[in-house]
Design brief:
Order of helices and strands: HEEHEH
CATH superfamily: Phenylacetic acid degradation B
Radius of gyration: 26 Å
Number of strands: 3
CATH topology: Ubiquitin-like (UB roll)
Number of helices: 3
Shape: elongated
CATH architecture: Roll
Distance between the termini: 83 Å
Structural class: alpha+beta
Helix content: 25-40%
Number of domains: 1
Strand content: 15-25%
Length: 123
């Protein structure tokens, strides 16, 4: 039975030795990052497989920038991205909590409402 999928037909599985299929062995995995608007943060949106960064950008544009608004796309080789291993997660436990950076740490709602009442009466 033959397949209608061109990717399967290109493989020509009858010529494969020892049952090993090496698909996309010439392609590089690229991580794709998307920026919705200028000044907004860039977020990871997926991966593409391509042989060059230029082709990776074209494929990323077709895959991830078709529907929503896009200002910019970045691609980076997956092998060039470095991260901490899961065994090293304890290094983040030494960071002290800095709740003063979060607005929820400040209890000022009562003061704001009082100020609004006082100023509303003056108007």
């Amino acid at each position: 039975m033959s397949s209608l999928d061109p990717r399967v037909n290109r493989l020509d599985t009858k010529k494969v030795k020892d049952g090993e299929l090496h698909t996309n062995s010439h392609l590089i995995t690229w991580e794709v990052f998307h920026q919705e608007k200028r000044g907004k943060q860039v977020t990871h949106c997926g991966i593409v497989h391509a042989s060059t960064p230029e082709i990776a950008l074209v494929l990323a544009k077709e895959q991830f920038a078709r529907r929503g608004k896009t200002t910019n796309l970045w691609v980076a080789k997956t092998t060039d991205i470095y991260t901490f291993s899961s065994e090293d997660e304890d290094i983040f436990e030494t960071t002290p909590e800095k709740t003063f950076r979060e607005p929820g740490a400040y209890k000022v709602r009562g003061r704001i409402e009082k100020f609004q009442k006082e100023n509303k009466a003056d108007v």
